[in-house]
# Entry
Amino acid sequence: MTTQTASVPSQDTMTGPLVSVEDLTLELDTPHGTAHILRGVSMAVERGQTLGIVGESGSGKSMLLRTVLGLTPGDARIGGTMRFDGQDLSAMHPEARRTMLGRRVGVVFQNPMTSLNPVRTIGTQMAEAVRFHQKMSKQQARELAVDLLDQVGIVKPRQRLRDYPHQFSGGMRQRVMIAMALTCSPDLLIADEATTALDVTIQKGILDLLQRVQEERHMSMILVSHDLSVVAGRTDDVIVMYGGRIVDRRATAELFSPPIHPYTRALMLAIPRLDMDAHTRLPALGGNPPSVFDPVLDADAADERDGRRWSTISADAADPVEFRDGVVPTDDTVEPLNEVVPGSEIGAVGTLSAEQQAGVAEGGDREVASGTLFEEIALGADADEEERR
Amino acid sequence: MTSQLKQDPGPRTQGFNAVIRPKRWGTSLPLVPRLKPRRPRKANRGALWFAVAWLTVLVLAAVFADVIPGLPAYDEKIGAFAQPPELSIGGLLGTDGIGRSNLSRIIYGARISLTIAVVSTLIGLVIGLVVGMIGGYYRGAWEATANVIANTLSALPPLLLLLALVSAIGASLFGITIALGVVIADLYIRVTKGAVIGNTNREYVLAARALGAGDFRIMTREILPNLVPVLGSIIPMAMAIMIVVEGSLSFLGYGIPAPTPSWGGMIAAGADIMRQFPLVILWPVVTLFLTVFSFNTIGDHLASRTDVREAKL
Amino acid sequence: MKATLRAIGTRLLYGIPVLLIVTLGAAALMDLMPGSPGQAILGDAATAEQVAAINAQLGYDQPFLQRYLDWAGSALRGDFGQTLFSREPVAEVLLRRLAVTAQLALMALVMALAVAVPLALIAALRAGKLLDRVLGFVTSALLSIPSFVTVVLVSLIFVVWLGAFPATGWVPPSDSLADNLRYAFLPALSLSIYECAFFYRVIRSDLTGTLREDFILVARAKGLPRTHIITRHALRPSITSLVTVMGLSLGRLLGGAVIVEFFFAVPGLGAEAVNAVSIKDMPMIQGIVTVCVVAYVLIFIVVDLAYAWIDPRVSVR
# Structure
């Protein structure tokens, strides 16, 4: 069983981050208008470190990775800088960039059922990347594939090379994808919702495999998920995305200890816990993410827009607190345990629809979840809407 | 700041759009599935509007042919043969090889072509729906029978079958229409059967059965409306085929007998004098082409509107 | 292998009832048509007795079922009788004519594919751009041109204006290959125009669908070059519709490209069919019908096998 380490990074940037992104913006033209998918994202991945990216659907986490990898649709407009191993990616020709990243970044995508070409054998698909990038012979590539399949836990790898994807189960297909991503000994491994489509029982196996592989090869890794539990305990740092921006960024170890960003806290509160009563209503964050077609780009202008308010998160339903870009109010209405360090950077959290605002103003009946560790939190106005119907 | 935790909150219907309200039976899902919103690009839109406009004009002209002022009868000799177009109603498109008004013959020919297209489509549709529905719904031996019928119809070269049928029944409007209807039925049988099989196992059919609906009711009130999008996109194309095939029959001499004009016959006649007088054949060719093209464009558009495959970025 | 053979066998067996029904139906249809072979051969001037005599000679005074069974019996032994038209053995005429039609059909298909496949590849790559839309429009227009108009236009361009090809006629390849191709070119071209437009649309539509699949994204993420992705990943899953359509086209073309053969005076199956129907040449008609059904069954066996080869998930039932 061979252990392959990541290729040697370039000399000048030995100590710099492997991937760094600064103020990245992504816009797409759609029939419904221009979609602002990424709105000023800055992040970095250090060598040998694991980064977790968490966020709900549509928060931009997958598109962030695709932008860096150069896999966005042709007419996308990208702003800001992206660097890989010190090289400016925007300055490169798109084909050259894809070729380089293809070799140095391995990606495992979300859906193992559709990520493999159904009419070609596993063997050919595993071999093609390494044969193209490193000009390996058919024989060598095959041996490498057998070895990798073995490492990821596929039994009888040599025979399996001639099988087709539909002859593998979902979990096994994902293992094959992981093996495929490792063929060129990448510096960075990206797992984009790699376990979302799998059974919970299989998830752990895949995640353990990813961790093991990363440690053995000293690769950097990015784990993307909407599930906090995937990220907890397996990453060094975590960033939380919402509405195309990064709203929270901290070391994973500190994720569960205060001060906690309100959105992150809301995410955690949504996780069911065994010590809760049956039929406990889990708190849902009110409002919707900002529309990609008309996101509030200017915090000051937000006040002037009619019918828009920032989503409210506070313990006191009768007196909601507004959070706006960049500044946290030092109001007393914020409970001490929920206090966010004043002046810390947080992002826009969202908007309430007109009905929801009315609900907030009325201070109607609210469901609250209770737990020993967390304070009560005002539930989103969804509940009120239901009652009113 | 603790409120009482309410037990048993009640049904959450957030995000669930369709509400099941039992009527006499069946669900109140919309009868015709909503079309996917689409904004076709400018060029396609132009083509679509042209197609609709052209067909409208054609239908109106054909229906009101008798009352168009100044339009000569289609078998009336209005001048010398193969005259170029001139500024009179009758002579707008010139004359054909015998001296009859091309415009008039084209308009009256439109009557024939459109009538044949519509009626034969209806015939084929009825045959196809009945056979396909029964075969697809009951499966088993019925499906095998439907298969045999469809395969038999398609195994025969269509023109051969047409020629034989037309010879047998007679080259009249009636005969040709029936013959065409029979020949195109195979397409409708296949499409219907496929769609019915796809739909029969859906939950709404099971729901209807559970509520006590009989087979006939299910077929007509539940499954049939769901066939509308699929059929809607092939009907215009099938009509286009009907027009073309009718033209072919006329071209071969098996169409509506002279002097009743038909586009195919006009093209055949025009082909004879094509070298010296190319204009004569031009008009029926262009008209035929525009008509068929319009049907195809509309059919294409409907097909893309009802295609539910979403594009992934 | 055994499964494949069994599947082939099943389909062949299934073709038999179709064959029976079709030939029976053809015979019945001919009977419904007015006139009799005697009339067709002797013309209007003949007396009733003369007509009856000819009919008796040809066995037309027998009841319908008797005639059919007679024919079927001989056919199973390979004897398809003689044509009423020229007293030649039907089988010989069939083969001769079939060869001509088959040549045209194959030429047309090859020409159509040679143009449609590359164009569809390019268009799918540039989906939504100018070339794709123009081609879409052009093919839509081409599909709206009936074959009898196509032949007229083709003739106009190549015979009248360019003068490069003969207007009508046919030379068998055994006589002169070069001449044969000259005579075959225009009919094949006329046939191929429609097929080409059809193939193009089918391939392009399948291809754009395939290019949206996840595994294409994966291939791009691997950094593979575009040509590799198109040819090795996208092409193969996209040709299932094409295979079906090719089968249908071949069946249709073999059934006699009647208009084209009629117009260009090509001695093919279609022209023969028109002739046979007009004079109620029963043996000939039955022969043609048999050939068509057999061809149809065989083509679809091949198509089904092709599906299984293309997509390993499909097993041949």
In short: Chain C touches chain B through 49 residues (CB under 8 Å). The radius of gyration of chain C is 24 Å. Residues 266 and 294 of chain C are 23 Å apart (CA to CA). The first helix of chain C runs from residue 2 to 32.
